[in-house]
Amino acid sequence: MVVPPQREGGQSQYIAAPGAVTSSDSFAAMSDWMIDNLELEVTVADLAARADMSPRTFARRFRAEMGATPAAWLARQSVIRAQELLEESALPVDRIAVDCGFGTAAVLRQHFLRTVQVTPTAYRRIFGARKEA
């Protein structure tokens, strides 16, 4: 035998669990529900209950499959929705904040600045729909 039968240093042999299938769309229904209900205040425990998992398992699997924690992913989706509303509607920023789950314009502004690097008002000024005369 050319290869030693055991690894040095007590390292265990890594064997992937048979039948373990990870699908990038296993959280598709959950993410769709989250996007459709941005205005609701949900916790990881609420989402885990909907997915019939423990909060810890849900948070770990969500992060592994979606690339972010549930809260960070949801905040990003809320900012994306706010961008759409700022571009397409004439709704006041306060109303957009409520509809996107931020509650107040100040909280929307904070998340928007961190993500998009401009205020919601400046974003609307730049990308908002132009009224035809």
Number of helices, where a helix is a run of at least 4 consecutive DSSP H or I residues: 7
Which sheet architecture does the biggest sheet show? Answer: none
Task: Write down the Rg.
Answer: 22 Å
Helix content: 55-70%
Point out poorly predicted stretches: 10-24
Shape: elongated
E-strand count = 0
Order of helices and strands: HHHHHHH
Report, as a whole number of angstroms, the end-to-end distance: 84 Å
Structural class: mainly alpha
**Content of β-strand:** under 5%
Report the mean per-residue pLDDT as an integer: 82
Q: Mind explaining what this structure looks like?
A:
By secondary structure, the protein is mostly helical. The chain contains 7 helices and no strands. It has helices spanning 28-36, 44-51, 55-66, 70-88, 93-99, 105-116, 120-127. The relative contact order is 0.10. Mean pLDDT is 82; it is low at 10-24.
